Amino acid sequence: MSQDMSTHQPATTEETEPEEASAPLPAARRPRRPPWALRALWSAWSQGWRQRHPRGAQVLSVTLTVLAAALVVAALVMPDSVARLEPGAFLRLPAEAVVGAAVLLALPRRPRVAVAAVSGVLLGAMTVLNALDMGFNQYLGRKFNVILDWSLFGDAESYMEDSLGRTATLAAVAGVITLVLLLLVLLALSVVRVSGVLARHPGTATRGTLVAGVVWITCSSLGLQVAGVPLASDRTATALRDQTRRVSDTLHDEAEFRKVARVDAFGNTPGSQLVPDLRGKDMIFTFIESYGRSAIEDPIMAPGVDRTLDVRTKALAKAGFHARSGWLTSATYGGSSWLGHSTTMSGLWISNQQRYRTVMASDHMSLTDAFKKTGAFDTVGVMPGVQKGWPEQKWYGLDKVYNAFRLGYRGPKFSWSTMPDQYTLQQYQERVHSKRPTAGRSRMSLLILTSSHQPWAPIPKMVGWDRLGDGSVFKDIEAAGNKPADIIADTTRSREEYGKSIQYSVTALTEWLERYGSEDTVLVFLGDHQPIARVSGDHASRDVPVSVVAKDPKVLDRIADWGWTDGLRPAHDAPVWKMSAFRDRFLTAYGSTPHPKTN
């Protein structure tokens, strides 16, 4: 009776105050209905609906409970790799669910609801981190670092905007944010609902929890599996330990790496004793975006790329140039190209953003800065991928840098790439290479080519070097090319187009060398990292090709003991070095004298 009176209390109030009911207040003055009143109305409506449809209410209640439990279990056992994302991975018994049920059964109502809600939110956060691990594994070949990797989301958004457009990017970002919030709310509500069911049936729930615990221990002890997947799971607990360890390792690594960065085998070498065997040379270092070992050895990409490398080796030989090539193991994978650039140039293993910032703020000598310190070289950088301030110029020791806005390009962007590599190289020729260095000096150049950057659509085509102009010639080529959205979602086409982009970049660079290189030109070119795992494969190495090209036979004689392969295509069994070993080996090969710096 009291419940019915409570339910109908608002109506009774209206009946006892007819004057107010007949003269409602204006909207601006009408008092808001308090939250407790809204809850009362909802309770009254839902109770009435249950009374009118008892069968439907029961089915709905059971369905919601099953869905809530399924969502919680799925979140607890979800793998951290796309390759393991299959139905069998979700048919597991999570230890966290057994322990959680035992804890919730032991708590009074209010603490139980609070613990369940907080646990659901935390499980949602772990699920988001797990999804980030999946994405980072797929694209960068590593897991998400909760301390260092937040800054990469800005780069990811810029990449999506360049590839798919601003509208699609804003929609995707809004969708992701909505999905994350929805996941947190749904998991919190799901754990609360499941805990309520456990509390209403304590005897059955207790026996079920004990049985589940025994089953988990048995499966774990015997190593029972289904389709190669263990039945007993502690996936979320393991992920939490991994995240905790990753945070601890990151904090510890910062202090340790600062010590490592202060040690430099050539840090106190006088300029007069740096690269004496390259004095008078036209020295060029070039990175080709995403130029990895897979381009040369994968069965889909390799035929076209290998054919291009062989053809260009012969063309260069006809022009008097010869090459030797090997492999370097990059410090990064699938992206974060700047880590590969700085690792090559610093002689340090710069595998994350924290190490990168540490080195950029240090006086550890870069390979390019070594040429500047000689006093015998002008130093210049050509960076078509740089579209904002670039304070790293100082650490690289570059007198002048041409970024995307200083190369006079008036053609279309090719997805992320601001301009085709052929245009970049022609502008380098006109603005830098064709000009005389400062009197008595030579020149050292650092070029970063971008046309082979994902999503590999559209891809530029070679045009006559005398037709390049301001780049407008590429408008029709860009318009006729593939759309990024058509390539991104298709793994096979991505691999095919990636191979074509490498062919284009290698052709543009070597044609430039054939056309404009001199007797003194020495070109070192290499990849910065492998392409994303979806293209290179889940178990691909981190190796990238590296080549030294020159006309002067003495230049290649200096590296004869490296065991590298003749030509632009390194043999499968050619030596593999860590990318961080290149700087010191190069400096030593060309006559530099070590004078260590240790503080």
Describe the structure.
The protein has 599 residues and is of the alpha/beta class. The protein folds into 2 domains: 41-246, no CATH class; 267-589, Alkaline Phosphatase, subunit A. 53% of the residues lie in helices and 10% in strands. It contains 24 helices and 13 strands. It has helices at residues 2-7, 9-16, 18-22, 35-52, 54-77, 95-105, 109-140, 152-164, 166-200, 202-222, 235-261, 293-297, 302-318, 337-346, 353-360, 367-373, 393-396, 421-433, 475-480, 484-488, 491-516, 533-536, 553-557, 582-589, and strands at 93-94, 225-226, 229-230, 232-233, 282-288, 322-329, 377-382, 400-402, 442-449, 521-527, 543-550, 565-566, 576-578. Strands 5, 6, 7, 8, 9, 10, 11, 12 and 13 form a 9-stranded mixed beta sheet that branches. A two-stranded parallel ribbon has the order 1-4. Helix 5 packs across helix 9, helix 8 crosses helix 9 (166-200) and helix 18 runs parallel beside helix 21 (491-516). It starts with a helix and ends in a 10-residue tail after the last helix. Residues 1-23 have low confidence and may be disordered.
